[in-house]
């Protein structure tokens, strides 16, 4: 295959590639004794090299048993998936536990084949975990024919035997398994967008048969086949894999992606920006966090449509460090000889003013030659962007809201760039600070009345003064304080609503489609964020959020119709859409704007709101009649709808179910509502006591699965969900209840891996597998603290805290294999989870 055929070249350019091969006759030359088979020269090295490439997966799918396969592929490493017994055994497992009937069938088959082998020279029986096989490669022609006929007769005499015919071998499986099913299952798990399968045997035709138009099948040797391509031998397979590796490396090498957790955040509580470790602004939406983008290179890895604002050392030197100025979002990136300080101006009460006017300030200080590139791309690159040069800066054309770059004394060069324009300049620093200032909502290119140092000082004080008033626990105090600052940064100052995260479409699976827009306000997430701040002594954000929620509820046709998601100004979301012009983060497409989950039913939304009011009341905050009115409306909503199925906290885009977590949160809403009622009225309504008992009874009867010894994801669904830990975290069950303890242990056994906890393993209808979910890890930590297993909780918390990036920010998820952050960033859930865990462990006596 030199050069590679067009089908293979197209495969190497896919987002997420899967190369899967058979072993015998494909990676290993066929030999007369199956026990003597070994990989062809160079096979191990090329498979390892191919598997090391980004978004490139390698698997070996063989009829051999998994342990046998491992023994022949020593040195391959864990990056290559091994699938044995025609798909019945997979990497990570220790084998297959056969039911008694299958074990008895396997024994009968082995006994029958042994009788044949004893009478026909040159034959031998291979015992496999889920099958028995008769090999007749060394038999005479007549003996081989006789062995073949007798083996077929054995297979036909046992109705449970699944016949597989190979190259001079008859194999009988005792369970259903085939390479085609295994290949499709693996491709779905890895979210592979294109597959190459290489095989030589009749059993490999099952795999060739499931390949689609974007895939390629390669047959080794002669014989009829469904594969479109051929090579002659395992040696040529190795050569082909080497060529695929080179072609794929050239492709993914052109798509570098800064790790998500290495970005830093800027905020003025109306919008946010993300900055890479080398001071490149790759994410900024204006005028609000949920508006169209001005810079979106974050979601355009390897492309040019996203846009960025870059400052680089003219000589190409890398920066030395990037740090926040104390407890603020004033960010300094330091090179040898000069620094760049970035912040969004929060002076003069801007954070509470209506979104529209925003100033992002970049201050260059020191000495040296600096190269600057200003490449705005309006509305995710969908609007052609033109740049006009003025004496004191640049004007961005392309939309009605004005945007200028104040940059006095800079000589800009404008170049055309794929339908847009980019401004470039080289600035010589000589000890005097140079200011570059993006101003949105104005055409003003005159100097500000207040000096830049004063605005920087006021911005620093805006954040650090607020942080000083927090009551921070003794465990991980610096990360707790930074987490609280992140929650404040995600709060929309003018309204009080909290965004769930700063970004859209950062993937939960690299190269996959699990990409969602989180730049909106989930009342649930917002209430949990505000509650975490209340626990640190700050009640102001919670009270303002409740004012926002009152306004939202007052607009609802009835309280039980409260939607799961709103814009940060309290409006309805538009339709979910896709941006086709952006390549996605690390090739992860589609890039989405809007969120269709806004139209779902999520019955857990009411409890966090009620709990927040109860928490404020317990902390002595001024609870007003309007707050009690809000709580009553939430209780009415629960009473009206608690018995219905819903889509659940994880917003699975499938049929509604009776989610255990949602039911528990309905119970929690009523329980905490009674607390608020006692604070406000001095009494408890007996009707609500009866309601909470009714809900609790339903959960304990229908949510508990005695076979799994755990509460599950939904009534009657035998799958685990970390959210089921709410049965103890809310107090529905006391910490010493055996059912809560059993659920904790089942979550640990089923959903926990090194360093984190998955949400669930149930099929959610989407390809690919996400990472561990940080909030779920936090729930497990809090649960372990509740039942007194402090050492376990502390160990897991240390791993949780270690996931924070260099400037202390956390994403939604984590890939436990690569330790790369996944999902939108920074994520409110992850930071509030860290706060709650630090408080729980500190209360249990833990210290730094």
Question: How would you describe what is shown here?
Answer:
The strands form 7 sheets. This protein has a 15-stranded antiparallel sheet that branches. It has a 7-stranded mixed sheet with strand order 4-3-2-1-9-10-11, sandwiched between helices. It has 22 helices and 35 strands. The model has no long low-confidence stretch (mean pLDDT 93). Strand 7 and strand 8 form a beta hairpin. The chain is globular and about 100 Å long. It has 848 residues and is α+β, with helices and mostly antiparallel strands.
Give a concise summary.
The chain is built from 22 helices and 35 strands. The chain has 848 residues and is of the alpha+beta class.
Give the arrangement of secondary structure elements.
Elements: H1 6-12, E1 17-21, H2 43-51, E2 56-61, H3 66-72, E3 80-84, E4 89-90, H4 100-119, E5 124-128, E6 131-135, H5 141-157, E7 162-166, E8 169-173, H6 179-190, E9 194-199, H7 205-208, E10 216-220, E11 229-231, H8 234-252, E12 264-267, E13 272-275, E14 280-285, E15 293-295, E16 308-313, E17 321-324, E18 331-335, E19 338-344, E20 358-375, H9 378-381, E21 386-390, E22 393-397, E23 403-406, E24 413-417, E25 420-430, E26 434-440, H10 452-468, H11 477-489, H12 523-535, H13 540-555, E27 577-579, E28 591-593, H14 606-618, H15 625-641, H16 660-681, H17 686-702, E29 704-705, E30 710-711, H18 726-729, H19 738-750, E31 752-753, E32 756-757, E33 772-773, H20 774-786, H21 790-802, E34 813-814, E35 821-822, H22 828-843
Parallel strand pairs: 1-2, 1-9, 2-3, 9-10, 10-11
Antiparallel strand pairs: 3-4, 5-6, 6-8, 7-8, 12-13, 13-14, 14-15, 14-16, 16-20, 17-18, 18-19, 19-20, 20-25, 20-26, 21-22, 22-23, 23-26, 24-25, 27-28, 29-30, 31-32, 33-34, 34-35
Helix pairs in contact: 2-8, 4-5, 11-22, 12-13, 12-14, 12-22, 13-15, 14-15, 14-16, 15-16, 16-17, 20-21, 20-22, 21-22
């Amino acid at each position: 295959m030199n050069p590679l055929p067009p089908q293979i070249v197209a495969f190497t350019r896919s987002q997420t590639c899967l190369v899967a091969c058979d072993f015998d006759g494909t990676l290993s030359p066929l030999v007369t004794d199956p026990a003597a088979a070994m990989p062809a020269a160079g096979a191990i090295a090329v498979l390892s090299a191919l598997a090391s490439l980004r978004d490139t997966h390698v698997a070996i799918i063989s009829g051999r048993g998994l342990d046998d396969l491992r023994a022949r592929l020593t040195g391959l490493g864990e990056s290559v998936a091994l699938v044995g017994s025609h798909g019945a055994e997979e990497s990570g497992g220790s084998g297959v536990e056969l039911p008694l009937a299958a074990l008895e069938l396997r024994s009968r088959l082995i006994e029958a084949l042994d009788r044949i082998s004893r009478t026909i020279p040159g034959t031998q029986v291979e015992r496999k975990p889920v099958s028995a096989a008769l090999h007749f490669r060394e038999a005479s022609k007549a003996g081989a024919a006789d062995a073949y006929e007798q083996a077929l007769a054995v297979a036909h005499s046992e109705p449970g035997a699944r016949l597989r015919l190979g190259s001079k071998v008859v194999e009988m499986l005792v369970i259903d398994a085939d390479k085609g099913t295994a290949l499709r299952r693996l491709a779905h798990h890895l979210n592979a967008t294109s597959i190459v399968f290489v095989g030589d045997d009749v059993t490999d035709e099952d795999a060739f048969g499931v390949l689609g138009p974007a895939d390629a099948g390669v047959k080794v040797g002669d014989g009829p086949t469904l594969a479109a391509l051929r090579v002659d031998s395992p040696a040529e397979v190795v050569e082909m894999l080497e060529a695929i590796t080179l072609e794929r490396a050239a492709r993914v090498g052109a798509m570098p992606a800064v790790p998500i957790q290495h970005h830093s955040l800027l905020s003025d509580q109306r919008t946010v920006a993300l900055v890479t470790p080398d001071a490149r602004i790759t994410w900024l939406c204006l005028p609000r966090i949920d508006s169209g983008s001005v810079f979106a290179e974050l979601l355009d890895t390897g492309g040019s449509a996203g846009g960025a604002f870059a400052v680089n050392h003219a000589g190409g030197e890398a920066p030395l460090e990037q740090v926040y100025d104390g407890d603020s979002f004033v960010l300094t990136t330091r090179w040898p000889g000069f620094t760049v300080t970035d912040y969004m101006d929060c002076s003069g009460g801007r954070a509470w003013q209506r979104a529209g006017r925003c100033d992002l300030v970049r201050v260059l200080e020191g000495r040296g030659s600096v190269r600057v590139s200003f490449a705005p791309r309006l509305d995710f690159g969908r609007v052609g962007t033109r740049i006009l040069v003025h004496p004191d800066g640049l004007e961005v054309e392309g939309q009605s809201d004005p945007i200028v770059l104040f940059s006095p004394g800079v000589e800009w060069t404008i170049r055309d760039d794929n339908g847009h324009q980019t401004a470039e300049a080289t600035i010589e620093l000589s000890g005097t600070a140079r200011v570059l200032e993006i101003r949105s909502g104005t055409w003003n290119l005159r100097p500000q009345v207040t000096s830049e140092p004063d605005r920087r000082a006021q911005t620093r004080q805006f954040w650090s003064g607020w942080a000083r008033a927090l009551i921070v626990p003794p465990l991980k105090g610096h990360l707790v304080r930074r987490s609280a600052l992140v929650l404040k940064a995600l709060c929309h100052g003018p309204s009080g609503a909290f965004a769930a995260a700063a970004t859209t479409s950062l993937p939960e699976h690299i190269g996959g489609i699990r990409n969602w827009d989180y730049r909106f306000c989930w009342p649930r997430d917002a209430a949990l964020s505000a509650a975490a701040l209340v626990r640190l002594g700050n009640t102001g954000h919670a009270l303002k959020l409740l004012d926002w929620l009152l306004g939202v509820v007052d607009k609802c046709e009835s309280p039980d119709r409260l939607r799961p998601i709103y814009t940060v100004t309290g409006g309805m979301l538009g339709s979910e859409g896709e941006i086709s012009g952006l390549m996605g983060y690390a090739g992860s497409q589609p890039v989405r704007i809007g969120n269709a989950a806004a139209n779902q039913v999520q019955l857990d939304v009411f409890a966090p709101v009620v709990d927040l009011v109860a928490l404020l009341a317990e902390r002595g905050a001024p609870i007003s009649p309007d707050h009690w009115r809000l709580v009553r409306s939430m209780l009415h909503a629960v009473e009206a709808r608690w018995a219905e199925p819903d889509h659940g906290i994880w917003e699975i885009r499938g049929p509604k179910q009776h989610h255990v977590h949602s039911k528990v949160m309905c119970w929690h809403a009523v329980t905490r509502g009674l607390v608020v009622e006692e604070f406000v009225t001095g009494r408890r309504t007996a009707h609500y006591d009866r309601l909470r008992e009714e809900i609790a009874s339903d959960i304990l009867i229908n949510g508990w699965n005695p076979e799994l010894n755990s509460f599950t994801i939904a009534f009657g669904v035998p799958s685990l969900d970390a959210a089921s830990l709410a049965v103890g975290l809310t107090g529905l069950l006391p910490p010493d209840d055996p059912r809560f303890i059993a659920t904790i242990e089942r979550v640990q056994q089923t959903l926990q891996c090194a360093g984190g906890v998955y949400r669930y393993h149930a099929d959610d209808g989407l390809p690919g597998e996400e990472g561990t979910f940080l909030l779920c890890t936090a729930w497990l930590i809090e649960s372990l603290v509740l039942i007194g297993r402090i050492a376990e909780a502390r160990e897991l918390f240390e791993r949780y805290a270690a996931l924070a990036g260099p400037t202390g920010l956390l994403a939604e998820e984590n890939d436990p294999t690569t330790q790369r952050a996944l999902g939108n960033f920074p994520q409110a859930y992850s930071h509030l989870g860290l706060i709650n865990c630090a408080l729980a462990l500190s209360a249990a006596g833990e210290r730094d």
